[in-house]
Amino acid sequence: MKTPVLAINFKVYNTSFGQKAVDIAKAGEKAAKEYGIEVIVIPPATELRRIASEVSIPVFAQHADPYDFGAYTGWLPIAALKEMNIKGVLVNHSEHRLRLDEIVAIVEAAKKHGLETLVCADTPIAAAAVAAIKPTALAVEPPELIGTGIAVSKAKPEIITNTVQKVREVNKDVIILTGAGISTAEDVEAAIRLGTAGVLVASAIMKAQNPEKVINDMAMAAAKAYRK
């Protein structure tokens, strides 16, 4: 994973499926090429194979299970993601919380299959614990701000700075992102200036009247702020 990062969590909005999802992924691909940043798209499981075949940017799954192929009805094995050319997994989002031992198992299974991991944490202390597991990246996301349109970089900037400090004491290499309420290009710029390498964003793009414009504005802001 290169930096800066604009990671787009599609969640399961009505724009997260079919051609609308493909169009948003392609807008991310276009922005990545234009601004030289890492744009990661994270669609629902049903859309993974199609989107991975349509774009060259990294496609992550919203969740996966630490299994190889076998008798695991109802689970999504990481081994299957590798076969679909999926590059990574989002882990422990506040809408899909996991125990620490489950996070460890997924991160280790992803490493075994050559996939990256983006693990969410809700506090600086939790982020430090996640950093010790050595994922590719982590995103600090206070759950009370997710989907509110109130960016953590504005409402609680100390969470970001404290996260950076505590994580770096444990792991100097993990990529740190900011999530929760990221709504504008200004929020992206603020998050990077507070010490992180990018953002994890969802509704600001997926529910936008013009998703391509929001992606473009955020990508441009990330590139500008990161290179200052």
From TrEMBL:
GO biological process annotation, one example: glycolytic process
UniProt entry tagged with the keyword Cytoplasm: yes
PROSITE patterns associated with the record: TIM_1 (PS00171), TIM_2 (PS51440)
EC number of the protein: 5.3.1.1
Top EC class, one word: isomerase
Pathways per UniProt: Carbohydrate biosynthesis; gluconeogenesis; Carbohydrate degradation; glycolysis; D-glyceraldehyde 3-phosphate from glycerone phosphate: step 1/1
InterPro entries for the chain: Aldolase_TIM, TIM_sf, Triosephosphate_isomerase, Triosephosphate_isomerase_arc, Triosephosphate_isomerase_AS
Function of the protein: Involved in the gluconeogenesis. Catalyzes stereospecifically the conversion of dihydroxyacetone phosphate (DHAP) to D-glyceraldehyde-3-phosphate (G3P).
Protein name as it appears in the record: Triosephosphate isomerase
Annotated organism of origin: Ignisphaera cupida
